[in-house]
Specification:
The complex is a heterodimer. Chain A is 33% helix and 27% strand. By secondary structure, chain A is an alpha/beta fold. Chain A has two domains: 222 residues, Rossmann fold, CATH 3.40.50.300; 109 residues, Alpha-L RNA-binding motif (Alpha-Beta Plaits, 2-Layer Sandwich). The two termini of chain A are 37 Å apart. The longest helix of chain B is centred in the N-terminal third of the chain and has 31 residues. Chain B is elongated. The chains are: A alpha/beta, B mainly alpha. Chains A and B meet through helix 2, helix 3, helix 4, helix 5 and helix 6 of A and helix 1 and helix 5 of B.
Chain lengths: 333, 271
């Protein structure tokens, strides 16, 4: 069964903006699914319709087989949502927020208190349980929103940028937590601007751009479509000019840093052999940008240029742009 | 962070009645908690205001006014003052709580939940009635300190106060749905509710007014509520009781339908 099934979904806002232009999308039960796209692409609108915060203009959407037009209450009972913006009552304590949230799903207070304790402990918020929520740090607020979304033990958990503004240590512990939830059977749909996060966590992906699905594939298949990668090599000894490596595009960034563009039919062993032969010692190596980020930018840039941003061919043979997505999307290389 | 202890329910059949009942109770408990948490804003001001009214209008000025409707002025205005506090507090509780939830976006907690909109309206309105009745009780206690409170018809007292607090809680809900900022939350109470309450027979019998003013007063729904409530205490009223209760019941039904209809359409809550 599909956790989420969308057909011909259209949303036109009162100001005339068409945020979704007839989207078809299926997310399988048990999946950890990434829904990516630039700002204003329609991700939050799609999530809004799935959680009934936004009314659709046309099309159908069902959650675990419950059509939101016919079985809205049953559909909503399956979902937990972590929205982009902090949206709990800042004057209530974390424990009160969680217990009340469970109550809205018909869970009696005794059971709700037990669950609240469980999630507050797991998310390291137990010692803050009776503090006013506005006194929590940004990371704690994010974790509280995750705990709140889990109070009804949802079959489908929708996370709209759950780690925005969270430091790397907490982000990685949140990843472990979410992986654990997914392994226990909860379907997760994740939108994020940290593409490393999507690449690390998700098995399937859809990229939405301009209100349409630009790409929908398995994460591993999508990454294979990347035909060229750029690697940054740190050298032990200083160079005054870039070494000449036939078949490779090599640039000297500074005296100790080389950038080498490697296409899919080339290999790194060959590069290292040639560099060794030239007496150049490599201390370390890294990707110039995150692989998913590169694919994402190419799809989105192609969409912006007015071309059909679907074909895998679009990804081949394109050099890595100097201006990567790092700044624009908030990701890291 | 631990990765344990999250289970997915194995597709239990949905007990909508239980969800609605527990959800309704939760909203009411939350509203009650809010009233108690900010008691200095919710319960105390009306007691202070009522005391001032009794001291100034009842005791100082009231002595010179003499009897009204066969009762001392203090006795006459006491039901009106209680009703005034019920009206303003029922209204204020719902408008501030629901608008606050919209403003802080935590209304989304309810909107994404499986609770139908009529349960959400019922929960907030019950919260408003609770505050109205609690404050009404406090003002009644203050009244007892200043005058003899007699009970002519307990059922009419209860019916009038419940219906009035219901109507004005619903009024507060409608205001909150439409309000886009805090000015719009305060506008209706300041410029509509307060004048209507003051001209609604709280401090006088409409029989004292000139003919044209009497006719104008009969268009004021609060006049009917205050007089029905006063009848319960004193057995006197400027309006027919049946008409007063008919107005309250019809208003409550129509306003409840309006509130649910607005939420169903997403007015002020959904895009």
């Amino acid at each position: 069964m599909n956790a989420l099934s969308v057909r011909g979904l259209v949303k036109t806002y009162r100001n005339g903006v068409q945020a979704l232009k007839g989207i078809d999308l299926d997310v399988e039960e048990g999946d950890f699914f990434a829904l990516l796209g630039p700002n204003g692409a329609g991700k939050t609108t799609l999530i809004g319709i799935a959680t009934s915060l936004v009314t659709k203009t046309a099309g159908t959407l069902s959650i675990f087989g419950h059509d939101i037009d016919r079985e809205l209450e049953a559909a909503k009972a399956c979902v937990g949502v972590v929205p982009q913006e902090i949206n709990f009552n800042m004057f209530e304590s974390p424990e009160t927020i969680l217990v009340n949230q469970a109550g809205f799903y018909g869970i009696e207070r005794r059971v709700a208190r037990e669950r609240a304790e469980n999630y507050l402990r797991q998310l390291h918020l137990w010692d803050k349980r009776d503090k006013m929520s506005r006194s929590l740090s940004g990371g704690m607020k994010r974790r509280l929103m995750i705990a709140r979304a889990l109070m009804n033990e949802p079959k489908l958990l929708i996370l709209d940028e759950p780690t925005a503004g969270v430091d790397i240590e907490i982000r990685r512990s949140m990843w472990d937590f979410l992986r654990g939830i997914n392994e226990r059977g909860t379907t997760i749909i994740l939108t994020t601007h940290y593409l490393e996060e999507a690449e690390t966590l998700c098995r399937n992906i859809a990229i939405i751009d301009g209100g349409r699905i630009a790409e929908r594939d398995r994460m591993s298949s999508l990454l294979l479509k990347l035909h060229t990668e750029t690697f940054v090599l740190t050298l032990r000894n200083a160079l005054s000019a870039a070494p000449k490596l036939d078949g490779y595009n090599v640039a000297l960034v500074d005296n100790h840093t080389l950038e080498v563009e490697v296409s899919k039919n080339q290999n790194l062993n060959d590069i290292f052999s040639r560099l060794s032969a030239l007496g150049i010692e490599v201390l370390s190596m890294r990707n110039k940008v995150n692989r998913l980020e590169e694919i994402f930018m190419r799809l989105v840039e192609k969409g912006a240029n007015g071309a059909a941003a679907r074909a895998p061919e679009a990804l081949s043979g394109i050099a890595v742009p100097e201006t990567t997505a790092v700044g624009a999307q908030g990701g890291r290389s | 962070m631990n990765t344990a202890s999250v289970t997915t329910s194995a597709a239990p059949s949905l007990d909508l009645t239980r969800i609605r009942w527990v959800g309704y109770k939760t909203i009411v408990i939350r509203e009650y908690g809010r009233i108690i948490r900010i008691w200095g804003q919710t319960l105390v001001p009306s007691a202070v205001t009522a005391t001032l009214y009794f001291v100034i209008f009842g005791s100082l000025i009231g002595r010179r006014v003499g009897d009204m409707g066969g009762f001392s002025y203090m006795q006459y205005i006491a039901p009106g003052l209680i009703m005034m506090s019920v009206i303003t507090n029922s209204y204020a509780n719902v408008v501030s709580s629901f608008f606050g939830a919209k403003f802080g976006k935590h209304i989304e907690e309810l909107l994404v939940s499986p609770l139908p909109n009529w349960v959400i309206v019922a929960g907030y309105v019950t919260g408003g009635m609770l505050r109205g009745l609690m404050v009404g009780g406090v003002v009644t206690l203050v009244s007892v300190l200043f005058t003899d409170m007699q009970v002519h018809h307990l059922f009419i007292i209860l019916a009038a106060v419940l219906l009035t607090s219901l109507v004005f809680s619903l009024g507060g809900f409608i205001n909150a749905v439409f309000a886009k900022n805090f000015d719009q939350v305060n506008w209706v109470p300041s410029f509509i509710l307060t004048p209507l309450t003051y001209f609604g027979g709280v401090f006088y019998s409409v029989s004292l007014l000139p003919q044209w003013a009497q006719k104008l007063s009969y268009a004021n729904p609060i006049l009917y509520m205050v007089n029905a409530f006063r009848y319960g205490f004193l057995g006197v009223s400027d309006v027919p009781l049946r008409l007063a209760f008919a107005i309250m019941v019809v208003a409550a039904i129509a306003m409840f339908a309006l509130c649910v209809g607005m939420l169903n359409r997403g007015t002020g809550t959904r895009e």
